[in-house]
Specification:
The chain is built from one helix and 18 strands. Helix content is 4%, strand content 51%. Strands 5, 6, 7, 8 and 9 form a five-stranded antiparallel beta sheet that branches. Strands 14, 15, 16, 17 and 18 form a five-stranded antiparallel beta sheet that branches. By secondary structure, the chain is mainly beta. The N terminus is likely disordered. It starts with a strand and ends in a 6-residue tail after the last helix. Strand 11 and strand 12 form a beta hairpin.
Length: 225
Amino acid sequence: MAITATAASADTVLSAQYGAPTDRYDHGVLGDAIEWGRLDITTDDGLRSFTLPQSRVFEDVAPRVVDLDNDGAPEVIVVETLASEGAQLAIYDASGKIAATPHIGLTNRWLAPIGAADLDGDGVIEIAYIDRPHLAKTLRVWRYENGALEPVADLGGLTNHRIGEADIGGGIRDCGDGPEVITASADWREVMATRLTDGVLRTRSIGAHVDRGSFAIALACAQLP
């Protein structure tokens, strides 16, 4: 894959956004035909821009800036899609793309990020997403360590997005006793809280899912009605 950049640097990432809107990938899972052809990363030394080839797009709501290796210099989490093989979760820094999961394997197959945190308390950051939130409805957790992404655990029966929604639901909360991944059940009837313990994902219902407000209540550590 060829990715062109305006410059390469180890500068500290301050923010990131997508640019170069494009309709070259006709999926429209987020409610319109527009995806993104470029990632713009602002560092403490200026702008770094990474332009994808015609076969790829960023199929996402927004880049997520997170310090994944606890070194004080954030990385950028994106959803990057290869037209023939679907989406992958990818990590960029100011030098470019540094790690990624495999592509799902088929065109028009997508993943919806949830967030990143030290989910099991071992001092290393994990990244959570829903693989094919409209089909497989599987929570996948990967660990970012030593510059690479490694799979940790999977759990089916969970989702965080419906076709056509312009945003992605859920997130990660910590109500004082450790991080929990907040999603919906596969049938959208319940809000689910999932923990990673000893390498295993365990989930439980914490109340009824009504709308996006249900996620907001859960993420605020309030009691769902």
